[in-house]
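Listing S7. Sequence submitted for prediction.
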Amino acid sequence: MARVVRETETVTRNDADQMVRPGAVNDPADAPSLVAARIVYIIGGLIMGLLALRFLLSLLGANRENAFADLIYGLSFPFAAPFFGLFNYDATYGRSRFEFETLFAIAVYALLTWFIVRLLTVRRDTV
């Protein structure tokens, strides 16, 4: 004999008469964590973008005396500096150099961004 099993789901209505399922994308309780996650993604993306520009400028041998190159090197320095000792960093500007430490920094900041967003949205995954 076949046995029929039915699942039930609790659905509530919000002020706008829209159905809201707990943990759903339109759940108002998740709005602050989603906003915070988007902010973290934006900040992480800006940092990784600066580091990617730094890597590209260094790879192409950009002149530090150029205003744009100086701006990118200056803005990205605080984020790349913790990784300079990993691969014998040589601060020579104006000649082509493959910055392994900058690539490593991009990978670390990408993982850190992902981890922070996962912490912020952990409630959504448990429902």
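Caption to Listing S7: primary sequence and predicted structure tokens for the chain studied. Residues 31-126 form one domain. The chain has a mean pLDDT of 81.
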